[in-house]
Each structure stands twice: as C-alpha cells, then as structure tokens.
C-alpha cells in the first residue's frame, strides 16, 4: 500500500475524507516514498507543502513521517533551530552542529517552516546545502511559499540562495483546500483544552499562595509558576511570555508538564511578547499537550488587539475556543 492509499485509511479512521488539495499533496509524497525505497540509493527531491492554516499540512507530514521506514527525523522548525544553536555553541562550529544533527538521515521533516531572522536564514542556507550534498530528502510544511520567506525587504535578498535551494531540493505543492479544519468540527487531538474570560468558571481550582513554585530555566534563570500539581502547571501570562525566555525554556517545560493553565492572558505589551506566546502555542500544539487559557477578553478580541500576525496562532487557539465548556474532570 503506497502513501496515497494509506492516507485514505488514516483519514477514514479520523472521520474525514481527504480533499482534492490534500490528495495532490499525498500524490507528491507517494512519489517521494517510491524514490526513497529505491535501490541503489539515489537523490530524491523532497516536498514543500505550503498554504493557509488549518488545511492539513501538518497532518500530511506527520502521516508521511510515520509511514516511512528509513532513517528519519521529524521536528518543528523552531525547535530544530533552537537545538542547532545550542549544539553550535557546544561544538564551536555551525558546520559541525549541522553534521551532528543530520548524520545518517535519509529524511528530514520540518513542521512550520518559517524564516524571519537574517541569522537563521544564513544558517538555514548552510543546512540546505548539506542536505543536498548528503542526499537527505526534506519534507516541510509552511504557511508561506518559498519566495515569501524572510519577507523583510531589508533582508530578503540574503535568503535568495536559500530559496533557490528549496526550489531545487523540493517539489513545491500548495495545500489550499476549501476548509480550515481547525475552525470546523474536525477531530481534535489532546491539544484541545479550554478558553475562558471575564471570570467565568474555571476547570480547576484557582492556585493558592502556598502553591507557588520556582522552576529552573536555562542559564541559571528561574520562572515562577502559580501552581504545580503533578504533571499540571499553572502560569501567569506576563511571567511566561513577557520575560526573555527562549524556545528552549518552553521545550524543557513541555517535557515536564502535560497540562498547562495560563491565566492573565491579554494582548502582549510588545511584539516580542506575542512572538513568545506564538512559539509556546506551537510547541504545545506540536506535542498534543492540553492547554487552558484564562483571558481578559474573548478570543477574537485578543487576536484583534495583538501586535503581530496571528493566522497560525488563531487557528490553533480556535481548538481551545471550541472546547471551552469542558469540566474540571477533563484536566489530566
């Protein structure tokens, strides 16, 4: 059974039928699957899936990754680069760090491929060259066509070599189906939690003063949690998102806690604060963790009043808004 047929089975188990855009993407992935299984090993250009939020790009990439039996790695894009920066610091060389992370791979799968930082653009270009030289196939999902990466006109020219490599090393496929499945009644994963505001009833008891817990972060820093209850943690939005925490800090916390409650949620005071919030949502979503938000206003107003782009974050938070009537027994 090739990937195209396997996708039909997986989708049926989840209660839906792939739309034409998903079918076209599955056909490109099925071709990559056939090439990766060939002997002797040959260069197999990957697949770059792009399109609006909620169209099933992550679902397709995850299903493809799970179906393959070659040496492979699947990570969210910002998680990989955060790890790559750490390894570069430890080994003293970006080239050595890249080699460390891709050695022995046949397939690298990136979810939420995005380029906003010129420094990351240069490092990504080096990574893409290594993938081509090592004959490692890339599958990536993104909300952006390759030509729209690193959109800042002051820096866009710096990533033109990287854009050329993406087009050389992948088949670019648009996934632009008619539905945002996250905004509809699509099957939900464990990420579904809840969203409340205006002092509406909560799903878990409010934290008490004696429950405050100081948690270690990287670089000798600490983070104050309002409560830690086994694998459940309650945080204040300002403490979590408006301090200079990194994606690595959030990744470490995601390993410790399965259920998150964040209170005091409001529009961040800076674009950096909102970007941290967006990164945190990506990390929790990627790990299918439960998230409960306690905000000062309805979700549409929160997104409207926030300082930067919200499409992907809005789509993911819509899963929470759809399940806001859960009871406290839903908390794990």
From TrEMBL:
Organism domain of life: Bacteria
GO BP annotation list: cell division
Transmembrane helix as UniProt keyword: no
GO MF annotations in UniProt: ATP binding; ATP hydrolysis activity
GO cellular component: cell division site; cytoplasm
Keyword Plastid annotated: no
Matches recorded under SUPFAM superfamilies: P-loop containing nucleoside triphosphate hydrolases
Keywords from the named record: ATP-binding, Nucleotide-binding
InterPro entries found in the cross-reference section: ATPase_AFG1-like (IPR005654), P-loop_NTPase (IPR027417)
Matching NCBIfam families: ZapE
Record protein name field: ATPase
Species assigned in the record: Saccharomonospora azurea NA-128
Lineage, top ranks: Bacteria, Bacillati, Actinomycetota, Actinomycetes, Pseudonocardiales
